[in-house]
Amino acid sequence: MFKENTAALVTGSAIRLGKHIALNLARAGYDIALHYHRSADAALETQAEIQALGVKCELFSYDLMDVAGADAFMAKVKDHFPRLHVLVNSASGYTPAPIAETTPEIFDTQFALNIRAPFFLTKAFAARIGSGNVVNIIDNKLAYHQYAYAAYLLAKKSLADFTRMAALEFAPHIRVNAVAPGVVLPASVRSEDYVQWRIQGIPLKKQGNPDHIGQAVLSFLQNDFLTGQILVVDGGENISNVGQHSENWKQG
Ligand SMILES: NC(=O)c1ccc[n+]([C@@H]2O[C@H](COP(=O)([O-])OP(=O)(O)OC[C@H]3O[C@@H](n4cnc5c(N)ncnc54)[C@H](OP(=O)(O)O)[C@@H]3O)[C@@H](O)[C@H]2O)c1
After folding, report:
1. To 10 degrees, the CA torsion angle through 141, 145, 146, 152?
2. N or C: which end of the chain has fewer CB within 10 A?
3. What are phi and psi of 250, to 5 degrees?
4. How far apart are CA 209 and CA 182, in angstroms?
5. Rounded CA gap, 64 and 183, in Å?
6. Torsion sign, CA atoms 96, 245, 119, 178
7. How far is ligand 1, taken at its centre, from the CA of residue 173, in Å?
8. Ligand 1 atom closest to the CA of 36, numbered from 1
9. 185 CB near ligand 1 (under 6 Å)
10. Is 202 in the pocket of ligand 1 (CB under 6 A)?
C-alpha cells in the first residue's frame, strides 16, 4: 500500500504515545526517524523494536526548545532518509497550572514545546521536503476551557489553528492534519481512581489505547482528500457537555 522506504519523522518517539505512533507507522512499512531528547536508553530499545519489524530506524537527538536548530535538524534527517515524507509532531510539554499559578517560565515552556516547535518543524519540513504529510498531535481538551492547564491548553488550541492555517499555506503539496487524543496514557501523576472517574464521562465508557492514536495518524496518510482536519480520538468525551474537569476531582 505504501511506497517502500518512505520515511516518517516522529518527534518524541522513544517513549509513550510517540513510540506507539512510530510502531504503527513501521508496521505499515515506513522507515522511522526516531527523535528523542532525554530518553536515550528508551530510544535504543524502541529502535530495536522498530527494526525487528523489518524497516530502517535511526535515532536523532534534538532539544525542541532550540528552535533555531529546526532547519538543520530537518536537513540532517533528510540526509539519512532522502524519501522522508511524513512529520508527526508528537513531543510535548505538560505542566498543569491554572492561570493564577502560571509563571512566565511555565507559560514560555508550554508555548515553546506545544506550538513553537511544531510551527518551526513544519516550516522546515515544507522548505526541505516540499511534499508529504504533517500530522500534529493535539489534545481533546480543545473542546473545553479547562483552566487547570491554562498555558498547555492555550498552546494546543493554537496548534489546532496552526494546523488549519498551514494546511492552506502548504496545499496542494503538503497535507496538514491533526489527531486529538483523549484518555489514552495518562500522566504518571494520575491515579487509577482518577482514570476511572474520567471514563465515567466518556460515552464509550473506556480508555483509549495507543494504537487508536497510531491508527488515526495512519488514516490521515491513507486518505489524500483530507487536509486541515482534526480527528478527535477520545471515545466521544469531547461531545459530552462538560468533560471531566480535573479541578472537580476530589479523591476519596
Ligand atoms: N498520553 C495521552 O493520553 C495524551 C492525551 C492527550 C494528548 N496527548 C498528546 O499526545 C502527544 C504524546 O503524548 P505523551 O503523553 O506520550 O507524551 P508526553 O509525555 O506529553 O511527551 C513527552 C515526549 O516529549 C518529548 N520532549 C519533551 N520535552 C522535549 C524537548 N525539550 N525536546 C525534545 N523532545 C522533548 C520527550 O522526549 P524525551 O523523553 O526523549 O526527552 C517525550 O518523548 C503529546 O502531544 C500530548 O500532548 C497525549
Report:
1. 70
2. C
3. -120, 115
4. 10
5. 25
6. positive
7. 28
8. 40
9. yes
10. no
Q: Sketch the domain layout of the chain as residue ranges.
A: 7-248
Backbone angles phi, psi at 207, to 5 degrees: -85, 145
Q: Is the CB of 17 under 6 A from ligand 1?
A: yes
Q: CA 50 to CA 163: how far, in whole Å? A: 28
The answer to whether residue 3 scores a pLDDT higher than 60 is no
pLDDT at 250 over 80: no
7-248 adopts what CATH topology? Answer: Rossmann fold (3.40.50)
Residue 209 has pLDDT above 90, yes or no: yes
pTM above 0.85, yes or no: yes
pLDDT band of 1, cuts 50, 70, 90: very low
The pLDDT assigned to 2 comes to: 46
Q: b/e string for 198-228 if b means 16 or more Cβ within 10 A? A: bbebbeeeebbebebbbbbbbebbeeeebbe
**Is any atom of ligand 1 closer than 6 Å to the C-beta of 69?**
no
Residue 133 carries which side chain, given as an amino acid letter?
Answer: N
Which amino acid is located at 97 in the chain? A
